[in-house]
Amino acid sequence: MSLQISDAVVWQETAEGVSLYHTETGDFRTLNETGSRIWMLVASDGDREPVASKLSREFAGDNTAVLRRILVDVHEFIGTLIDDGMIEERLS
Fold first, then answer.
1. Matching Pfam families, A to Z (predicted)?
2. pTM score of the predicted model
């Protein structure tokens, strides 16, 4: 599945993280460091699995239990962004 930032979202990277504004809903948020990293990976890679895999490798190292937890958390976070209309998931 391919991920794409919604056309309705204006965003920019700031010192605090990535700031998002959904022009249709008025939703504004600033992502923390981890959320910002996920956002930037979505912006550059656009596929769910590579985003989750890259982030889990960056933060978990060789710890399998932590790696699995990160994968779950990343998928949940991406799901929230999809539900909130910030990103869209499409068939590749």
1. PqqD
2. 0.88
